[in-house]
Predict the structure.
Amino acid sequence: MKQRLDKIRQLLSELEGEVETGTPVAWDRETLAALEAFGAIRKEGDPNRDGTPYRVLIPDEIEACRKFRSERTAAQPKPEIAPADIDFYNVRGNRIKVYERDSYKCRYCQKNLPALPPR
């Protein structure tokens, strides 16, 4: 699967780099056929004077990419984040959690703290 994705990336980069210089039509057809077989592009209409319209699909729309992503996430679970690594100062949502946890009171002097204005 990874080899196929690497081949597609290589074909796309070559295609982008050689559009300006011009390439043999047979090579272009082979490249487009390979991308279409992989599911990375799809014909969107009939050929006309300007060429054949294609739609380039994003990775979420490509079945092989979705399968590869699901296999990778199943093999590599997300690492757990230690409480010491969570930023309670710069992240607004985390600050609100701290305020709510402490009932809007200062942990040191027990003064009431004003509620954060909505954003």
